[in-house]
Amino acid sequence: MNRPKMILFDYGQTISNEGKFNGIKGTTAVMEHAIENVRGLTPEEVQAEADAINTEMGRIDPASRTQMKFEVPNHMFTAYLYELCGIKLDLPASEIDRIFWDASAPWTPSEGIEDFLEFLHKAGIRTAVLSNICYDPGVVKDRIQKVVPNNHFEFVVATSEYLYRKPHRRIFEFALMKAGLKPEEVWYVGDNYVCDVEGARNAGMTPIWYKGAIDFYQPDHNDVTTVTSWKELEEILNNLE
User: What is the 3-class SS of the chain, one letter each residue?
Assistant: First the structure.
């Protein structure tokens, strides 16, 4: 392994330990801003419709999501959902995303991430974020800033803004272009073996499988450097000096 010039991070279950998703809580918070509800639907009924659409699209099952090549920005999803349900909201699309996400998936920083990011900064290793995520990119950046306030991320690539989803090679190449680096100069750290490990490897980067906050079953693999804590990764980097 070569010492990287930059480490790219996934967001959910990597930088952040996202709480168990609860769509009904998110929809309930959003519907507090309804100014018209012609069918008199409850949050449970609206979320049931959302779940049906998401299931049809393959957005719910983690294994199905890895097969999606293109991102569906949430503003498109919610525009369809709420108009279909006969509901008007007094919110812009970005605020719908913020309110829904905050209520449906509370977060905490993954254990040790802040110290690890500070270690990288002092070591002169650049950092940035590349995440499969459907929410408004401004909302994503704000959330990351709350999770790790003292980060030195040079940029955040949210797939909601840039079309392609991991593991598609193009989204990794796009991040490399923004960094101005060659694939062999960059490590990618994430929790999802298919999206993060295979995706980064296929783009020529060095993948690191972070398993410290995984929230769904994935079979073991012995073909990748695997860590369960940020201290482990710090030790690997120190041993490369």
Answer: CCCCCEEEECCECCCEEECCCCHHHHHHHHHCCEEEECCCCCHHHHHHHHHHHHHHHCCCCHHHHCCCCECCCHHHHHHHHHHHCCEEECCCHHHHHHHHHHHHCCEEECCCHHHHHHHHHHHCCEEEEEECCCCCHHHHHHHHHHHCCCCCCCCEEEHHHHCECCCCHHHHHHHHHHHCCCHHHEEEEECCHHHHHHHHHHCCCEEEEECCCCCCCCCCCCCCEEECCHHHHHHHHHHHC
For tokens 């030790």, the residue is: 235
CA distance 96 to 152: 28
Torsion of CA 109, 15, 56, 73, to 10 degrees: 100
| pLDDT tens string 116-151 | 999 999 999 999 999 999 999 999 999 999 999 999
Rg (CA), the chain: 19
pLDDT in tens, 56-68: 998 887 778 888 9
159 φψ region: left (φ > 0), alpha (ψ -120 to 50), beta (else): alpha
How far are the Cα atoms of 10, 31, 128, 217 from residue 15, in angstroms, in the given order? Answer: 7, 29, 11, 19
Question: Tokens 């996202």 label which residue?
Answer: 18
Q: What pLDDT is attached to residue 19?
A: 85
Q: Which residues contact 113 (CB under 8 A, 6 or more apart)?
A: 15, 148, 230
Name the CA dihedral angle for 80, 33, 148, 234, rounded to a multiple of 10 degrees: -40
